[in-house]
Every structure is written in structure tokens, then in C-alpha cells.
Amino acid sequence: MARRALVTGGAGLIGSHIVDLLVREGWQVRALDNLEPNTHKRGKPAWINEKAELIEGDIRNRDTITAALDHIDVVFHQAACGGYMPEIAKYVHVNSLGTAQMLEVIREDRLPIKKVIVASSQAVYSEGAGNCPKHGLVFPSVRPIEQLRRGDWQVHCPICGEITKSVPTPENAPIGGETVYGLTKVDQERLVLLWGKQVGIPTVALRYSCTYGPRQSIFNPYTGVIAIFCTRLLNNLPPVLYEDGEQTRDFSFVEDIARADLLAAETDKFDGLPVNIGSGRGTPICEIAEQLADVLKIDIAPDLNGEFRPGEMRHLTSDITLARSAGYKPTVDLSEGMARYIDWVHAQSDIRDYFSEASEILKNKGIVHRVAR
């Protein structure tokens, strides 16, 4: 008998690729998505898998999530508000409250769910792990806003103040969440893992690194640096780099992320745990801008204007030792993944720049700051 999956956020970047993979693997799949206009400006996307059942509805609606959970074995919980959107209440309602309500429905209705896999994020960490020349491995806290206002972007040892060197961040690093999004991701993963222990249902929190690839929205100006840089360049505008552009991130191609979700469903090695899912390699953001400009053949230098976002980590490379121990292996490197994303972008029509307007909103709401002159 085919296993039955619910993929919340099933029309989104990661959710839709999970849906496709599960269908190929013979699962019966139901997708729940509210087709958020910020992401799906043209309505239902063409990539919705015809072999999956689609419920158009909101995770926050109790009747909707109750119907979506009917006759389901495994839940892949991807639905979330992401990025740097300014709506605090919306993040909490969708990410924290939506997740809590889903878990409550499963428990109160005694649904025979066999596993819940929640999409967590590297944003749960305050800062990536560092190596101090005097104290070795350290876990620095978020850089103070006063430091950033001075234009000091470095990560200092919490013990002696020396500049640290970025090293891969393991799952046992302290978590806290220094942005509204990060805070709600901490909520989500801790809720799911705690609930799983209480009710005896296996649960897994996958801490995704920066995910990109085909279907990453070209409309949402608040999330996805590769998508944002692409739309800027294609409109003959410079990519905007915060700080000095040397901050690093771990980029994962979306198909690798989907495979990690399937692995989490099939193995018990991740049960009850948070698990880093990434490439295990850090790439400077300025290099992302340069590579995209090269591939697009658009010679526009990035814009460095002394802006920064408080609470944003300087460096984050995922230590994926745990994931690898269960058989996870990233298969698409950054150059191939970028090329495939750009091929997909070129097939889209009417590619506009939505970042400029959003950037002003973020500045006005105090989410983006400028170095003191």
C-alpha cells in the first residue's frame, strides 16, 4: 500500500520539489498551500504536480488543516513565512501558531500520523561557529548593533575579543533566533520535537541552509538572495550587498533539500533530532553576485552602500556530519545549480525588480540600518 503524505506549503520552492519526488517514489501525495500572493503573484503555478491532490487553503484555518490531515501517514511541514518581511504578527501566526494548531489537531483527533518532518532553518543559530586563535572552537553571540554601526563586521571571540575564523556549525551550537523569522523557526522546531516526545510520534527538524533553484519566486523581494540578485541584474540594476559583501552562507540546491526530506521520512536515525541540511561549504555573498553577473553576461558591479541588518549572522556553514551518517549527500554544486536556476528564470516572462520598493519599507521599519558616518 502506498504511503500517504501531506506536504504543507506544497506549491512553494521546497514543498513542490518534495511533492514531485514523493510522487516519483510512488507515494500518494496531498499538497496544502494558500498560494501567498507575495510568492505566487500570478496565482496557481504551472508546476503543481497533476498526480498530487492540491488543497488551496491556509495552515491557520483549523478546518482546513483538519481536512488536509485526513488519512495521512507522514507530514512534511514546509508552510511558513520566510525572509525579512516586516509583518511580525504574520510570522508568528503562520509559523508558530499554524504549527501549534496542526500538532494540536493531530493529538486531539488521535490521527494515526507516523512521522512529522518540519522545515527548520539555519536562522535558528545566533551566529556561526568560530575558531579563536586562543580558545579554539567558540560559539559567538549575535554581533551588537553598536559594533555594526561602526562598520566592524568581524565576529569576535566571546571570551577574549579576538577575531574568529568561521568553521562549520554543528547542531549542538546554541540556538536563539535573532530575527523574527529565526525566532519563529526556533518555535517551530522546538514545538514539533517536544510534542513528538510527548505523544510518541517520531519527529524531525531539518535545519535547511540557504535553499535555491527553479521555482524560487521572482516576485518575493524579502527572501532568496540568488533570486533577488537575478531580478536586479536582469533589470540592469546592481545587486545590493549588505555589510562589506564578505559574509558567507551555505547554499543548497532545492533537489538536494527534497532528497533530505525523503531520507528523514525513511530513516529513524534523525528521529527526535534537529539535523543540519546543507552543502557543507560557505560562499561569500559578493561571489554569488559576481558569478550571477558572469553567467547572465551582465557587467554591473554590486552596490555597497554601508547598510546592514541587525541580527543577521556573519558566517554560517552547516556541519552536515549527522546527515551524511544516514546517507545524505549533496549532489548539485553551486555552479551547476546557479546555471539551472538561471535557465529557469530565462523561461519566465515579465521579470521585474521588486526589491527597490521593499528595501525602502525595510529601512523605514528599522529592519535595515546604515553605518554611522
Compute the average pLDDT.
92
Strand percent estimate: 15-25%
How many strand segments? 18
Radius of gyration: 20 Å
> Level of helix content?
25-40%
Order of helices and strands: EHEEHEHEEEHEHEEHEEHEEHEEEHHHE
Question: How would you name the oligomeric state of the polypeptide chains in this document?
Answer: single chain
- Remind me, CATH topology? Rossmann fold
- Structural category: alpha/beta
Biggest sheet, strands in spatial order? 3-2-1-4-5-9-13
CATH hierarchy: architecture:
3-Layer(aba) Sandwich
Largest sheet: 7 strands, parallel
CATH class: Alpha Beta
Detail the poorly predicted runs: none
Say which CATH homologous superfamily is assigned: NAD(P)-binding Rossmann-like Domain
Terminus-to-terminus distance: 66 Å
